[in-house]
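To the team - 6-phosphogluconic acid complex, inputs and output below.
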Amino acid sequence: MQSSNQSIMTYESLEELIEAAARRFSAASTDAISRFGRFNAVLAGGSTPRPLYEKLAAEPFRSQIDWSEVHLFLGDERCVPPTHQESNYLMVKTALTEHIPIPEENIHRIPGELGAEAAADHYQKELQNLFKGCSTPAFDFVLLGMGDDGHTASLFPGAAAIHDEKRWVVGYYVNKLDAWRITLTPPVLNAARQIVFLIAGGGKAVRLHEILRGPFQPDHLPAQAIQPTSGQIVWMLDKHAAANL
Ligand code: 6PG
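Output:
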């Protein structure tokens, strides 16, 4: 999986990785706001991005970013209410949004408490309303993580959602988790101007090597389905995650 719009950036420590990701997010927000008047960013769940969100909520980033023009979305969600400890919305709220001057209406949460399919329909309608007239919404920035099994967002190995070309948001039952998830689909993620994978830790090294250097098998390694249509993709890694590359 190599292409000219792909770059791989490796950092010595987790601190440097998080600092660089925060600078990239801030620069992307400045660029999008000056060009389009707003910055539409999709955030990831999981544990890796939490320190990034905390960094963005602290100075100098808190003041550098014009939060009034930032719209935050989620790439995936669990079927839980927004107050549940497994909620990605809650994680983003406690790490970032409750500490920054962002208007409440700029935070676009997936209503997981409605159940997977209803939540997906609801979010798809919300996106259609916000991205009126677009065949696929083009977010300015999509942040993704990668699970040990090669999943990204809630695109898990073997899921039909990996190949869904029609819907923007899908809710489905993930057998291996014995749980329902809601996720943006590859056409939406791939249409972003910039896709950033944030990956840290030696536990990710073998899978990451398979994803970046191995044969193309997105059913087995869903992160391989993420290939920008016309934007760029940046793999931001700490040295442990990058150890096998
Ligand atoms: C989620 C995610 C998921 C995550 C990976 C990596 O809701 O859990 O969006 O795709 O990014 O599982 O998670 P970690 O950062 O915890 O390793």
